[in-house]
């Protein structure tokens, strides 16, 4: 394979100059001046920027407001033409840089999916195949048959993201500032971005959230005044940016530069019905009915199927609003469809951006269960004391062996931890049950 084929985007000496006139009259004077006298100042939105983005990498672009991020991405996507320099793109790009681009507000959501898809170079048949995925991702119900002009901004974002993310491009370009839906939707977007990364696709991500860049990206680029002033490992580049923005003293902090951001998420409460198959722990009749139903509907694919899952509080109530420091049980019930030698259950917890904060499974804990024969229901439980700091989290459920995943429900339960009796620094991720002491040393 030639070196060239490994490069998704090659940017060479890219420059974008705008002519700035003090008054509209200056523009006219310049256009008619017989001696070609200049009445404008040149403003460099991008100044001699060069880099190569390798296929399959996730790139973060950071920089102050006005540093040239959007100009760079718009030039890459072909919305803007460079004043000089070049951009070479290998592959199909899907970009979400400006809400509204590629949408006609008079048309319905469905029509806009086709309109937008066509603009991006997809045929009607290709869009037909993607339609279900786009609709289920956007999850705006009947509104999809209404003109887009009647949408709330949240619905609009959902649809635009749904299209951009599900058309299966080779290169995805996303401005994180546009991912403004509710917390569950944001998690869905980040999860899709992770999926993209795993499939070896190229992602370019503009963000002001430095921990997002550190978490998701392989390489970061820092722009300042239209120039590329730093590139490399995200942790190094974000440090330079923090220094630029906040000064030396704050560099040790790994939290988002937009500090208010995490706080905003704190009380974005989950909906009541997070798990489709809720059965009370002790309701065996309900469980019997559920098992019968699931056996009837079994399509022969999953060897074992998670038929119920959630979080119980100490009284056995299913909850999604948890208190820091209280006791809870994560549980899943798994229906065995074919005889199995081994089955393990797992319960990973992630934050909205996909950072795995905690994960436990029966294999690590050396817990086994017998029998695992067809028709059995295996129940897995983990008792925990909730020492995650106040915030929003997503619990996933897995039934698997080391070699084979039988079933997994990713981010199935969105739960919120509130402060309880334990007041923590709001930017903490976990509570280590600290005992703080102060003393004056006599010497
Ligand atoms: N059409 C234009 N005419 C003149 N100047 C422009 C034009 N478009 C952008 N600029 C200027 O170019 C510079 C870079 O803008 P750009 O939108 O790329 O910045 P950015 O890094 O994306 O900012 P933000 O973080 O605020 O989105 C800014 O100073 C902006 O005012």
UniProtKB/TrEMBL annotation:
GO terms for molecular function: ABC-type transporter activity; ATP binding; ATP hydrolysis activity. Keywords: ATP-binding, Nucleotide-binding, Transport. The keyword Transport applies. The keyword Cell inner membrane does not apply. SUPFAM superfamilies: P-loop containing nucleoside triphosphate hydrolases. Gene3D superfamilies: abc- transporter (atp binding component) like domain, P-loop containing nucleotide triphosphate hydrolases. It comes from the Bacteria. GO terms for cellular component: membrane. PROSITE patterns: ABC_TRANSPORTER_1, ABC_TRANSPORTER_2. Residues 9-250 form the ABC transporter domain. Belongs to the ABC transporter superfamily. This is ABC transporter, ATP-binding protein. It comes from Geotalea daltonii (strain DSM 22248 / JCM 15807 / FRC-32) (Geobacter daltonii).
């Amino acid at each position: 394979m030639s070196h060239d084929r490994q490069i998704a985007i090659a940017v060479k000496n890219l420059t974008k100059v705008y002519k700035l006139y003090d008054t509209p009259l200056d523009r006219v004077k310049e256009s008619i001046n017989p001696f070609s006298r200049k009445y404008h100042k040149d403003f460099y939105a991008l100044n001699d920027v060069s880099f190569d983005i390798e296929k399959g990498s996730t790139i973060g672009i950071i920089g102050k407001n006005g540093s040239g991020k959007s100009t760079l991405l718009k030039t890459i996507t072909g919305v803007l033409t460079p004043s000089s320099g070049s951009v070479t793109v290998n592959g199909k790009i899907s970009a979400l840089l400006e809400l509204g681009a590629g949408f006609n507000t008079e048309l319905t959501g469905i029509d806009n999916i086709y309109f937008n898809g066509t603009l991006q170079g997809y045929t009607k048949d290709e869009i037909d195949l993607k339609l279900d995925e786009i609709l289920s991702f956007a999850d705006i119900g009947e509104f999809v048959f209404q003109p887009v002009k009647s949408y709330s901004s949240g619905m609009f974002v959902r649809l635009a993201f749904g299209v951009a993310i599900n058309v299966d491009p080779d290169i995805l370009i996303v401005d994180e500032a546009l991912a403004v839906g509710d917390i569950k939707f944001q998690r869905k977007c980040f999860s899709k971005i992770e999926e993209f990364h795993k499939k070896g696709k190229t992602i370019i991500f503009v963000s002001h959230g430095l921990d997002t860049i550190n978490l998701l990206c392989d390489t970061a680029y820092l722009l300042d005044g239209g120039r590329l002033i730093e590139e490399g490992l995200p942790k190094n580049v974000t440090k330079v940016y923090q220094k630029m923005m906040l000064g030396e003293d704050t560099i040790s902090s790994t939290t988002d530069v937009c500090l208010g951001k995490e706080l905003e998420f704190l009380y974005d409460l989950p909906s009541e019905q997070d798990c489709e198959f809720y059965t009370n722990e002790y309701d065996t009749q309900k469980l019997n009915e559920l098992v019968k139903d699931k056996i009837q509907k079994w399509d022969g694919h999953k060897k074992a199927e998670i038929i119920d899952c959630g979080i119980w509080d100490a009284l056995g109530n299913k909850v999604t609003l948890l208190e820091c420091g209280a006791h809870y049980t994560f549980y899943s019930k798994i229906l065995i469809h074919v005889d199995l030698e081994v089955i393990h259950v797992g319960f990973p917890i992630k934050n909205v951006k996909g950072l795995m904060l905690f994960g436990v499974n029966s294999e690590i804990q050396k817990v086994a269960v017998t029998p695992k024969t067809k028709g059995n229901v295996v129940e897995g439980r983990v008792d925990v004391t909730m020492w995650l700091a106040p915030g929003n989290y997503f619990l996933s459920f897995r039934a698997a062996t080391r070699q084979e995943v039988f079933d997994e429900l990713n981010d199935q339960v969105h739960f919120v931890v509130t402060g309880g009796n334990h007041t923590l620094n709001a930017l903490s991720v976990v509570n280590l049950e600290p005992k703080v002491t102060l003393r004056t040393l006599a010497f």
